[in-house]
Amino acid sequence: MLINCAAYDNGSKIADISIEAISDYLKRPGCFVWVALKDASDDELTVMQEEFGLHDLAVEDARHGHQRPKIEEYGDQVFAVVHTVEMTPTDELRIGELNIFVGSNFVLSVRNRSQQTLLNVRERAEREPHLLKSGPAFVFYALMDAVVDRYFPFIDAIETDLEAIEEQIFEPGTSRANIQELYALKRKIGVMRHAVGPMIDAVHKLFSGRVPAVCATNREYFRDVFDHLQRMNGTLDSLRDTISTAIQVNLSMVAIEESEVNKRLAAWAGIFAVATAFAGIWGMNFKNMPELEWRYGYPTALVTIALACWILWRRFKRSGWL
Amino acid sequence: MLINCAAYDNGSKIADISIEAISDYLKRPGCFVWVALKDASDDELTVMQEEFGLHDLAVEDARHGHQRPKIEEYGDQVFAVVHTVEMTPTDELRIGELNIFVGSNFVLSVRNRSQQTLLNVRERAEREPHLLKSGPAFVFYALMDAVVDRYFPFIDAIETDLEAIEEQIFEPGTSRANIQELYALKRKIGVMRHAVGPMIDAVHKLFSGRVPAVCATNREYFRDVFDHLQRMNGTLDSLRDTISTAIQVNLSMVAIEESEVNKRLAAWAGIFAVATAFAGIWGMNFKNMPELEWRYGYPTALVTIALACWILWRRFKRSGWL
Amino acid sequence: MLINCAAYDNGSKIADISIEAISDYLKRPGCFVWVALKDASDDELTVMQEEFGLHDLAVEDARHGHQRPKIEEYGDQVFAVVHTVEMTPTDELRIGELNIFVGSNFVLSVRNRSQQTLLNVRERAEREPHLLKSGPAFVFYALMDAVVDRYFPFIDAIETDLEAIEEQIFEPGTSRANIQELYALKRKIGVMRHAVGPMIDAVHKLFSGRVPAVCATNREYFRDVFDHLQRMNGTLDSLRDTISTAIQVNLSMVAIEESEVNKRLAAWAGIFAVATAFAGIWGMNFKNMPELEWRYGYPTALVTIALACWILWRRFKRSGWL
Amino acid sequence: MLINCAAYDNGSKIADISIEAISDYLKRPGCFVWVALKDASDDELTVMQEEFGLHDLAVEDARHGHQRPKIEEYGDQVFAVVHTVEMTPTDELRIGELNIFVGSNFVLSVRNRSQQTLLNVRERAEREPHLLKSGPAFVFYALMDAVVDRYFPFIDAIETDLEAIEEQIFEPGTSRANIQELYALKRKIGVMRHAVGPMIDAVHKLFSGRVPAVCATNREYFRDVFDHLQRMNGTLDSLRDTISTAIQVNLSMVAIEESEVNKRLAAWAGIFAVATAFAGIWGMNFKNMPELEWRYGYPTALVTIALACWILWRRFKRSGWL
Amino acid sequence: MLINCAAYDNGSKIADISIEAISDYLKRPGCFVWVALKDASDDELTVMQEEFGLHDLAVEDARHGHQRPKIEEYGDQVFAVVHTVEMTPTDELRIGELNIFVGSNFVLSVRNRSQQTLLNVRERAEREPHLLKSGPAFVFYALMDAVVDRYFPFIDAIETDLEAIEEQIFEPGTSRANIQELYALKRKIGVMRHAVGPMIDAVHKLFSGRVPAVCATNREYFRDVFDHLQRMNGTLDSLRDTISTAIQVNLSMVAIEESEVNKRLAAWAGIFAVATAFAGIWGMNFKNMPELEWRYGYPTALVTIALACWILWRRFKRSGWL
Fold first, then answer.
1. Which of A186, A293, B307, D289 lies at a 20 to 30 A Cα distance from B157?
2. Three-class SS of residue A53?
3. B126: distance to nearest CA of chain A, Å?
4. How far apart are the C-alpha atoms of B81 and B84, rounded to whole Å?
5. ipTM of the complex
6. What is the pLDDT of residue A79?
7. Per residue in E103-142, pLDDT tens?
8. What pTM did the predictor assign?
9. Subunits touching B (CB < 8 Å, at least 3 pairs)?
10. Residue-by-residue DSSP string for D182-228
11. How far is E88 from chain D (nearest CA, A)?
12. Cα–Cα distance for residue pair C18/D118, rounded to 1 Å
């Protein structure tokens, strides 16, 4: 579905144009065309391929989707796949894709399986003609920057969730909930790493070493995106590490709690076993058991049993078993 | 066993030829020969070695099999070993090999211990003369691409299986089944990594840095294969990571379940121990136990015991042990 | 908030100057300006950007904060972000930032969310004119060195805490406290690694390979900072490794203690079960139980029971269960 | 101990020569000398050092042994240490060393602490004069290849053993044996990795980048050795990974089994506790317990007890505890 | 404290000289000075700095100590810090430092916090004038070699200790001792890795790539030190790996032992519970219990109980619980 198609010159929009007019504007020197598609159909992609002379393999990637994030050069064009991340209503992360084709005088963005509109990117760019003047490279940067910056809230949410778990991880009785939430967080981190990780290497090539010609004017901006990605990656790495430790700690807490339960069980079992053993002995049917005949035999027995239990109870209490 | 032997010129098949005729066609400028063998015998390999001037070590590798995936240059020829993956009836992954010899005017593929036919590669290539025109390099790409793309369903199957396990990992009583299935999945991932991992480095050399001359015209296509391999590798890495965590989580769940069982055991043991202790005391044979003579002594005793048990039961219930 | 603003020439301060005067002094050959801000407002940063011609992206980083440590070149200027580390009253580590802009004739430091004053750096530098003579590069070094050296006490504190835990890790009954403290230490190490790790790569670029022109005269000093960072990093790595092992060992200790408790429980349960079984048998109501009629039947029974218990007790004692 | 000493020219042995004659043959152009020693004495090594002009440090390494595998250049000579692996009668792996000195016109091999004869290498080489013609480089290759190829059976044996363990890892009651065997396998893998790992880097230098002059003619052969080493290394890596997982899985199985035992224990303990509690109640000595007087009181009681036990037993059975 | 100060020419000592005379000898062509200090005071270091023109930062490192091992170039001088390792009486490893300053015509060694004398290095060097002739580079090598070679016995001791633990790791009842010793070994390995690891990179620069001028003549000797360090590092790595596995295995053994104890406990508890239940039933006070009146009722009951116990016991025995 076509979202937008406009021609720009010297940093300002000169016209919203029709797809048929693209080739006319492409011929004008200093002018560039910026097209935005959403969930593009095969036909739309074929038209675009013809208009801009896109490479077969790049178009095929945009068509099939489910690519990993990457930035590839095809001749003097650049093709990028960036993951968009959204929260589903069931609190899971869903991955979509933004495919960006960049040439010396055009930018084509194809957004697939994503609800995130990028209209604000266009608006912001049109408000900054001194930057937009540098052409497709700036648009490319602005699109990537917008998508990448939207990762931050998801990573922040993971951090907040993890902190909440950390606060209850040493509380007794929470281990089952903790482990479930830690596992869910781990999966979210996996999704984010999948989006961030491959982009780091890809963006690095846009400002260091041999930079594609269409991106050469904006190195510092691409380095800024790189920097954001690195920061996210660092955070994700340490989140991942913390979750691993938290899972281990949770297991330790289960073991510690169980050990404490076991001690308490052992203690009470011991106390009742003593009572039962005493009662058993005085319940034997020997003829000649003088204490059974005593007047205060029974209360004495009860006191004896209670005393034995109390001594045991105190010892267990002191040694921390109860 | 010979599957196919044909000569191509300018992207079109000019003839199915006999093995004896190969050397004639090799002499024709612009013409190349594409031979496909399956489970080649020693004799067949020896004939091919003579026809195409293959290197001893490469032929020996094709003969012995059980190589790791690799791409090697011998002079101006390229020799590749790619793993084929198939599912056995017992749901295990079986590895076969596709050996590919590429020269400036020939491609020889030798498929060993694999049921996967590659006829469709030849058909597809013959339907695209504009691509086949670029010669052995394109055939080489098409063969690798076909084999590598067949890895995807196996990786998808592993992902699906893992998701199924994840759904029941927090269910009580499933830990034994989970751990068995996780272990089986881990092994499958190992097999796939073995096929994918070494190929990444190997294919990388086909489009970046000093590229072998016979492959130089198709860099973007080899990069596409590389990209697929990277994607698989990323997926396999995160699957492996998830399985490790799942094994840990499963162990935690076992410990948590056991801890809960222990608590319940402790609670019931305590309740019955109280009942038994009371009964034991009133079962003692002291002469002077006034309550035994009471008219309603017995029902009172029963009620007392029941009450004591109920109080305990309620406390355990409240503290979550029952 | 402006802390300080002074002009230097040939290693000595020539004047405390006002912000408006900066541009005058910048024009003087051989002279450089050193400005220090704290929690700079947007307006202050805008003024500084104009005075020194700072790059948009660098100023934006200084404004927003929460950057990871880094050193970036913008044209012939260098922009650095260094983490400051402070202890909160609740014994947690808090991260602030020192942003340093370095040009050929100025240094601008912007300290955000940090209580640590850097006045002593200025004092020390002014006391060493032979070093300060080398200009902004030396000031840059002195600032970084001051901030980095203040990491040491925090790392030492982590080491001391860890040693304290190690001393009690094999003591029974400490596992709950140990695991909590180990987890807290692990988090602190994470914070420190976050500050140290990215700086290592960044500082490396200041003395090796293509060094930014403004830093070229002080390579050995930057290498010294690098060396400190490496040392810290090595220590943090081994602390992290030790904590992982300590967590594992702590879990083992829990398991070992539980196993010992279980053995003891088993032993006492066995002893009492024997006593109860004997008492139960002599409590049966068979008519014809001759030993019940014996004169010394009862004491014999008591002795028998005691003897059986004592034999069991001795066996358990010997096998180490008690 | 001298095993062999012969001179070769143009791929054929020209004579078995005495040690004294070596220097004569070394002077002949196109001729090279191949000497094999076993557990060489200090004197023998000193003689060889003089004959071939070996470097002090290399000779010292050969003398002291216990080196890690390596390949070093001394001027225009190459010195290699390769580990030989043998099985001791107690099923442990024993490491020996093959030291190889290679010059432009000689090869000297010194085999220490190893029973493996290398005579077959010489025989095979002499049967292939077209290869032996390329001189010391081929002999060097042939020796390394022979030693490295003998690693395969040991790695295969580890694989077979691991598969045997994997088959019984989910069987109850095998965990103690499994863990012992896994640990023993882990150690064997350690030994093999020690032999294989350092060789990979070393051999890599013999065919890639700046290759020592004496090896330059045989690059493809050294790459073949490299390839074997890589394959082994890949296998060892995945074996190591599998063993780690297997150890974890084994621990899980212990925990699962214990949990099942605990449940069964809890179930039976509950059943008997019910029976005992009932019997205890009817064993109380209250005067007024009407059911005791009933004619069929006793059988009714027995049936009641049996019924209660059976109900419990069925519930436990259903919930999978029994 | 000054240990030694001597001038050498052409490989032989020409005089023990006073500190004041150093500058005289430094002027003589072909002559070099070798000074050894121990726990040098600030004054001594200041004098040396003046005599040899040492760099501020290097002297400061030597003064403060607690550096990580490193080799740094300051102009045409080289400054090295090497860790010395010693065993304390309490069987812990203690780290000291050897600081070595190397110039074209001098070597200065400053040994701090270490009891290890290096006099034998000087003696050995003086006995080998053909090596000492190559000047400060050889002395530098000899000092490093001496310190590094003294690491071997400590690593060997760790290996021996680990083997001792491995022999008892599968013995029941040793897990507490094992875990303590494994943890202690892990710490020792940490200390050794700290000494060895950073040296590897440092020494690598002395024989490969751009080598400092003063070391250029002795590359092969520095490579020999490198080789020793690599060997140690390999050993330490595999020790570390083995210890990790051993800790895991130890935990498994605790779990297995506990599981066996639990089974045995369950078995005996079951046997006694049966006996007690039977006795309880025959201890009930029903009027009409015919078997109580039988003549041989009691012995029959005893036999019945014994039989029931024996049947249970045999079943448990067979299933391996006892």
1. A186
2. coil
3. 18
4. 10
5. 0.85
6. 96
7. 999 999 999 999 888 999 999 999 989 899 989 999 999 9
8. 0.89
9. A, D
10. HHHHHHHHHHHHHHHHHHHHHHHTTTSSS--GGGGGGHHHHHHHHHH
11. 28
12. 85
